[in-house]
Amino acid sequence: MLKSKFLGCLIGSAVGDALGSSFEGSWVLEENRIEENFSGRWTDDTHMMIGVAESLIMNHGFDGNHMAQTFIKNYEQEPWRGYAYGPPQVFRWIRSGVDWSQAAKRLFGGAGSYGNGAAMRVAPVGVLYYDDLEQLRSVAYGQSQITHAHELGKEGAALQAYAVALAVKADMSSQLEPYAFLKELKDFTINDVYRRKLETAERLLGEKDRLRVIKELGNGIEAHNSVPTAIYSFLHCPQSFEKSLFYAVSLGGDADTIGAMTGAISGAYVGIESVPERWKARLERRGYIEELAEKLWLIKRRLQ
After folding, report:
1. Which candidate, 54, 304, 14, 271, places its Cα nearest to that of 168?
2. H or E element, residue 243
3. Computed from CA positions of residues 72, 77, 81, 85, in that sequence, does the dihedral angle turn out positive or negative?
4. Pair 16, 260: CB distance under 8 Å
5. The pLDDT of residue 28
6. By CB neighbour count within 10 A (0-12 exposed, 13-18 middle, 19+ buried), where does 202 fall?
7. Mean pLDDT across 31-37
8. CB 141: neighbour CB atoms within 10 A?
9. Residue 23: what pLDDT?
């Protein structure tokens, strides 16, 4: 079952990215429209998630410089994946000799980015360190530091990784309790912005008005306006990967990233068998992503 959860997490993240990629920037969508344009082609969200996995596998853990160089190599091979302004600029600074841990601090007048780019790719950290919260937080922050150095960007990545970890540990044979899940996340986060967002998510459980959910949780590119939304989308229907993904993408906005994060959590909970075959069959580079997930699982087995 653990192997299935590792596979479900990485494939689920890529499927969510691909499902939402046609609707980035859209307004609220009818769920029955969402699958019409599904091609299986994913964006920079999955491209960078692959980079995180590749580097963790190569080093059997986190090496910041190696991960940064992996990101750069992958970007230079396929720069057309839909990268925002920030990461390529950081990559150029690192190429020019700036240390990997310092380059991202140059963005936005030295404040660093609090976008969701570090959270969208963090799924491999969540599965590899699902039972070691100290390492999970450290590595989530470390991989974030490469491109998203702001506190909100790093904490968003850690919170998303921990949501994945909780989903890995959760027993599928018993009903998942959304309030207990959110309490674990509130206890984990050290940031008041995220704690308030999770309290809002708790209050909104069962809410039928998607406009209210968007207004109070957000659907934007900022980590604090999308990570809690992805968690909420998973909890909208935790037993169904398909329903969680449709709901996440239906919220519009940064639909590919919210879809990717929701897919990572849901896939980590329900396992690879619960990801619809019609989506897996069309997913770009499915075999390679599954290979990365299996290698992470094998590393985890050796560490245990």
Report:
1. 271
2. helix 241-250
3. positive
4. yes
5. 78
6. middle
7. 80
8. 21
9. 86
Amino acid at 85: Y
Distance CA 155, CA 169 (A): 21
Predicted pLDDT of residue 109 = 82
193 sits in the region (left: phi over 0; alpha: psi -120 to 50; else beta) called alpha
Kindly state the tokens that stand for 248. 């996440």
Which helix (H) or strand (E) segment holds residue 55: the answer is: helix 44-59
Q: Collapsing DSSP states into helix, strand and coil, what is residue 253? A: strand
**CA–CA dist 171, 122 (Å, integer):** 22
* Whole-model pTM over 0.85: yes
- Per-residue pLDDT reduced to its tens digit, 97-151: 999 999 999 998 888 999 999 999 999 999 999 999 999 999 999 999 999 999 9
Count the Cβ atoms, other than its own, within 10 Å of residue 85. Answer: 10
R_g of the chain computed on alpha carbons: 17
Task: Tell me if 150 sits within 8 A of 111, measured CB to CB.
Answer: yes
Tell me, what amino acid is at 197? Answer: K
Please report the pLDDT score of residue 175 as a whole number. 85
Dig out the tokens for 81 from the structure: 């994946």
Category of 61 on φ-ψ map: left (φ > 0), alpha (ψ -120 to 50) or beta: left
CA dist 229 and 15 (Å) reads: 17
Q: What is the pLDDT of residue 48?
A: 98
Written as six digits, the tokens of 168 are 């890995």
| Rounded CA separation 184/214 (Å) | 23
**Residue 177 in tokens:** 């309790």
Q: How far apart are CA 155 and CA 171, in angstroms?
A: 26
| Interatomic CA distance for residues 45 and 48, integer angstroms | 6
